[in-house]
Amino acid sequence: MQVFQEYVEQAETWLASKEAFLTNEDVGDTLTSVESLFRKQDGFEKTLQTQVEKIEDLQTFASELIQAKHYDTKNIEDKCKAVLERYVCYLQCCLQSQERCKRFMTNHR
């Protein structure tokens, strides 16, 4: 259970560090600032690839614990579900942020 909890904490910490940037609706007021945000967005997408593996590991480990009828199955299910919902929200915010940057760049070229 401790290993599972560490997976959860790592995922939550990573998501929290990225969500603040993605929920910011300000795309900047100059083409230079938007291009900078677009580069940051690209960096997020690259780190997302490595994070996908960690989220998948979390899901796999949770499934193994649940199948083994771990005494804290309900808590494991709840924590895994919460991380996955947050991750899906992160992906949606990532796409929205990318679209905002693209629209701004298209309108100001």
Can you describe what's shown?
The protein is mainly α and 109 residues long. The chain has a single domain (2-8, 29-107), classed as Methane Monooxygenase Hydroxylase, Chain G, domain 1 (Up-down Bundle). The protein is built from 3 helices and no strands. It has helices at residues 2-22, 31-67, 73-107. Helix 1 packs antiparallel against helix 2 (31-67) and helix 2 (31-67) packs antiparallel against helix 3. The radius of gyration is 17 Å and the shape is elongated.
CATH C-level class = Mainly Alpha
Number of helices: 3
Order of helices and strands: HHH
Residue share in helix: over 70%
Give the CATH topology. Answer: Methane Monooxygenase Hydroxylase, Chain G, domain 1
- Number of separate domains: 1
Low-confidence stretches: none
Mean pLDDT over the residues: 83
What is the global morphology? elongated
Our Rg estimate from Cα atoms comes to 17 Å
